[in-house]
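Q: Hi! First time doing this. I have a protein sequence and I read that you can turn it into a structure. Is that right? Here it is:
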Amino acid sequence: MNLDDERNWKAGQFYFNRDDPRILVPKRLGFGRTLNFAHPVSWVLFAAPIAIGVFAAVNKG
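A: Yes, that's right. Below is the predicted 3D structure, encoded as structure tokens:
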């Protein structure tokens, strides 16, 4: 997959490519990985920590 294709990057930071089966792809700049937001599993990985944090904050008492 061509990570340099500008059409696959939204706002220059978010990778979105339905033709790429990978969930994690190399970051465009720097090192590390980022999510392919076109893959449904990436939304689960993105939302799960947020949901856990909200749940913990609501049930703290």
